[in-house]
Amino acid sequence: MRIAFYAPLKSPDHPVPSGDRLMARLLMAALRQGEDRVELASQLRSYLGDAQDWQGLAKLQAAADVERDRLRALWQRDGPPDLWLCYHPYYKAPDLIGPALCKEFSRPYVTVEASYSARRNHGIWAGMQAQVHAAVSAASVNICLTARDHDGLKEGVPRARLARLAPFIDATALLKRAPEPQPTRLICVAMMRAGDKADSYAHLAAALDRLQDLPWHLTIVGDGPARAQIEARFAAFAPERLSWVGQQDEATIAGLLAQSAIYVWPGCGEAFGLAYLEAQAAGVPVLAWRTAGVPEVVADGVSGVLTPEGDDGAYADALASLLQDAPRRAALAQGARARVAQHHTLQVAAAALKQTLGDITGGRT
Description:
By secondary structure, this protein is of the alpha/beta class. The protein folds into 2 domains: 2-168 and 345-361, Rossmann fold (3-Layer(aba) Sandwich), CATH 3.40.50.2000; 172-343, Rossmann fold. Helices cover 44% and strands 14% of the residues. Keywords: Transferase.
């Protein structure tokens, strides 16, 4: 089966790493596991961050018109794909290309991780979200990665046809590597940018400040435009407590995870957090907030510990408990690896996608 893949927020070929880019790449890899031919349909980024940027909207709509014309000519010449799959359309980044082409060529339209929230209906975003609503309503299936997105679509777009898919990673290398955790070694892996990421760093620093009397060392993996601001949040700690290692490749991160005892990241606004899955696959239990989509990937008491959102004291208490309880850490580490292997691998996702897409294409997968 030929699948036209499109990610309007961030192309899988985008130069800046992020969870969205990684998830797009993982989806393409999972689809290819089923021997489907997956083509990146377009690299047009339909993102608009300002609800009053009418000039930007006009430019974006013109660019989308050009892309539709280009693809229309290509499909007329070579034949259309069997379906169009759009990853993560939402009010700031709708799919302005696929729905019209699918209607014109009578092809199934599919979304993965679409989201809808009526409270975003203002300014430019109201019109953009109306396009998301129409696309989700017309889609052959909307595949949801979290209960929150599923429930949001069910409430906001009652006609939507919905299916579930657990968040996943390519865990092969991580699961094969034997963990060698150092009992006081903490780690987090996250970009350094304003907003939720910077807020999570701030809450982590506040919690660690309550544990100055305990032995611990934090390895911070990541970089970005807010690095100076984030480093300032940790300025009160002795330098030997922290290792700022910057952005690293997958192999280096795997090695750092293997040496770590606890993955610490509160998770402000996390859709679900692929880094949580990577840590667990490496045998590192997670300490996070019970917020947003985090419970989709961290099972409280099985693969990690979840604490109340925004409560730095509760987070610090849970971390102190884990630092001082090696048997509990070991049990959580074992549970973390087992849970990822059973529910969150590329192979599990490939099988689930094959079934879901086969149901709408008459088994052509």
